[in-house]
């Protein structure tokens, strides 16, 4: 690509110096040539310009020589048929075609960049790195019949005596759960199939909906952590296990106000209780004391 | 409305009421609290006239935290009947002046109100009639509605700025209601419990 750009640049330089010659010729003898020997001075200037043209021409020659000619005619694929188009308004299609080709090219390039970025991100929610062994028994976690969802949630509801989970379906088939954890807190979780998409945690006395956050700082923190947990537990290959793990983790908040921090032993840090629960051990930690 | 714990801060010699409030204000602010205005809890006590049989007492309490409500607690023997009404209740009490009459001076707690994270702290100087009686500290932990779940947490918070004067057990009124859902009337009852102590005491406490 580099020699090609050099060659194109040489053409540009040559054109500009030739243009300069004709410019000078067109203007003829100018006032700044003075009175004495003005013809000679003009001729000298012209000669100088012509020699620049020569130099530039040689440079172009060199640049062109270093280019490797294409092995054969370019294959334009189906776009060659455009030349056979005889309808007037369709003859301009080629320009559009080139434009959209460039655009697809860019999309492809950005796509590649995005893939590298996303594959470094551990919170992905796609099949991208599930092993080929698992790939065979892959199930779609977003496309699950409502009966299956009801069954999974029903099992979770029965599993914990102090956590009640009820299912609503305000938006077509996707479930929205209302979770009541003792008299400590309430939450709403929106599902897509068996995938948890959104969680909002609020206090026992607050009105629950999907979009407004709690007026208490502690529940805003728990909401944040619940978002981290729903991404952490997400598993496209085992959606049921993911939901069950999330719910078990979430259930550990029944001691939100009564358990001291595992690290510092205190109830409060910055006037907040331990709002973090370890994903594996479910132990309580202050945000600042997190391992 | 969350679990609220009310406790008195004992007065020491050579520190006046305002000085005590200022002393506590400094400590609360050092924790990161921000002052959010003033508060006032006042209590009028009415007695039933003797010719109506056994004497009954009605405490009528206003709390600036619930400005649209009037709280009333009727005491008759061992029983106590709470009532939460709107502002018209005050007028009703006036109409019943022939049945219930004021016998005691008005008692009130007022002072600065602070917020820090989900806590609300109120430092009240208690006056009965014109006399200064002492200092009450109210701490509300708003996210929690069940006292048994957060008593230790609230206690730790109280200790953070009151030090060793914080008792190991919740206020007597709260002890019987540790597993109930906390209601605004519970705060009123705690104030009545404290006000009763101040009435008994001679001088400051
Ligand atoms: Zn800690």
UniProtKB/TrEMBL annotation, chain A:
<protein>
    <recommendedName>
        <fullName>Mediator of RNA polymerase II transcription subunit 27</fullName>
    </recommendedName>
</protein>
<dbReference type="InterPro" id="IPR021627">
    <property type="entry name" value="Mediator_Med27"/>
</dbReference>
<dbReference type="GO" id="GO:0016592">
    <property type="term" value="C:mediator complex"/>
</dbReference>
<keyword id="KW-0805">Transcription regulation</keyword>
<dbReference type="Pfam" id="PF11571">
    <property type="entry name" value="Med27"/>
</dbReference>
<comment type="similarity">
    <text>Belongs to the Mediator complex subunit 27 family.</text>
</comment>
<dbReference type="GO" id="GO:0006357">
    <property type="term" value="P:regulation of transcription by RNA polymerase II"/>
</dbReference>
<dbReference type="GO" id="GO:0003713">
    <property type="term" value="F:transcription coactivator activity"/>
</dbReference>
<keyword id="KW-0804">Transcription</keyword>
<keyword id="KW-0539">Nucleus</keyword>
UniProtKB/TrEMBL annotation, chain B:
<comment type="subunit">
    <text>Component of the Mediator complex.</text>
</comment>
<protein>
    <recommendedName>
        <fullName>Mediator of RNA polymerase II transcription subunit 20</fullName>
    </recommendedName>
</protein>
<keyword id="KW-0805">Transcription regulation</keyword>
<dbReference type="GO" id="GO:0003713">
    <property type="term" value="F:transcription coactivator activity"/>
</dbReference>
<dbReference type="GO" id="GO:0016592">
    <property type="term" value="C:mediator complex"/>
</dbReference>
<dbReference type="Pfam" id="PF08612">
    <property type="entry name" value="Med20"/>
</dbReference>
<dbReference type="InterPro" id="IPR013921">
    <property type="entry name" value="Mediator_Med20"/>
</dbReference>
<keyword id="KW-0010">Activator</keyword>
<dbReference type="GO" id="GO:0006357">
    <property type="term" value="P:regulation of transcription by RNA polymerase II"/>
</dbReference>
<comment type="similarity">
    <text>Belongs to the Mediator complex subunit 20 family.</text>
</comment>
<keyword id="KW-0804">Transcription</keyword>
<keyword id="KW-0539">Nucleus</keyword>
<comment type="function">
    <text>Component of the Mediator complex, a coactivator involved in the regulated transcription of nearly all RNA polymerase II-dependent genes. Mediator functions as a bridge to convey information from gene-specific regulatory proteins to the basal RNA polymerase II transcription machinery. Mediator is recruited to promoters by direct interactions with regulatory proteins and serves as a scaffold for the assembly of a functional preinitiation complex with RNA polymerase II and the general transcription factors.</text>
</comment>
């Amino acid at each position: 690509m580099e020699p090609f750009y050099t060659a194109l640049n040489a053409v540009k330089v040559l054109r500009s110096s030739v243009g300069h010659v004709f410019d000078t010729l067109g203007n003829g003898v100018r006032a700044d040539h003075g009175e004495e020997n003005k013809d000679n001075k003009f001729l000298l200037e012209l000669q100088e310009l012509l020699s620049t043209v020569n130099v530039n021409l040689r440079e172009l020659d060199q640049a062109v020589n270093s280019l490797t000619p294409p092995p054969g005619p370019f294959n334009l694929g189906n776009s060659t048929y455009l030349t056979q188009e005889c309808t007037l308004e369709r003859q301009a299609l080629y320009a559009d075609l080139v434009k959209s080709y460039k655009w697809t090219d860019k999309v492809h390039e950005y796509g590649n960049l995005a893939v590298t970025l996303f594959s470094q991100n551990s919170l992905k929610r796609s099949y991208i790195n599930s092993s080929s062994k698992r790939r065979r028994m892959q199930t779609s976690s977003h496309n699950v019949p409502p009966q299956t969802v009801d069954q999974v949630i029903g099992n979770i509801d029965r599993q914990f005596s102090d956590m009640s989970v009820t299912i609503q379906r305000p938006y077509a088939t996707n479930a929205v759960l209302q979770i009541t954890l003792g008299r400590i807190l309430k939450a709403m979780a929106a599902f897509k199939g068996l995938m948890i998409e959104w969680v909002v945690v609020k206090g026992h006395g607050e009105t629950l909906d999907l979009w407004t956050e709690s007026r208490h700082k502690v529940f805003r923190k728990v909401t944040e952590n619940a978002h981290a947990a729903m991404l952490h537990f997400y598993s496209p290959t085992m959606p049921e296990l993911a939901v069950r793990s999330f719910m078990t983790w979430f259930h550990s908040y029944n001691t939100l106000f009564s358990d001291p921090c595992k690290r510092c032993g205190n109830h409060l840090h910055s006037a907040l209780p331990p709002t973090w629960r370890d994903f594996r051990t479910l132990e309580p930690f202050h945000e600042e004391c997190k391992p | 409305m969350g679990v609220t714990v009310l406790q008195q801060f004992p007065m020491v010699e050579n520190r006046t009421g305002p000085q005590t409030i200022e002393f506590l204000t400094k400590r609360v602010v050092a924790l990161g609290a921000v002052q959010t205005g003033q508060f006032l809890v006042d209590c009028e006590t009415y007695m039933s006239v003797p010719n109506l049989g056994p004497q009954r007492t009605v405490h009528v309490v206003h709390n600036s935290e619930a400005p649209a409500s009037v709280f009333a607690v009727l005491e008759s023997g061992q029983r106590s009947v709470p009532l939460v009404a709107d502002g018209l209740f005050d007028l009703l009490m006036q109409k019943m002046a022939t049945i219930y009459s004021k016998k005691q001076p008005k008692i009130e707690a007022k002072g600065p109100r602070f917020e820090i994270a989900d806590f609300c702290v109120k430092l009240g100087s208690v006056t009965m009639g014109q006399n200064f009686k002492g200092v009450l500290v109210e701490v509300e932990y708003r996210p929690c509605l069940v006292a048994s779940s957060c008593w230790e947490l609230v206690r730790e918070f109280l200790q953070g700025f009151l030090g060793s004067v914080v008792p190991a057990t919740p206020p007597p009124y709260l002890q019987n209601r540790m597993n109930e859902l906390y209601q605004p009337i519970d705060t009123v009852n705690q104030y009545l419990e404290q006000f009763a102590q101040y009435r008994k005491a001679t001088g400051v406490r």
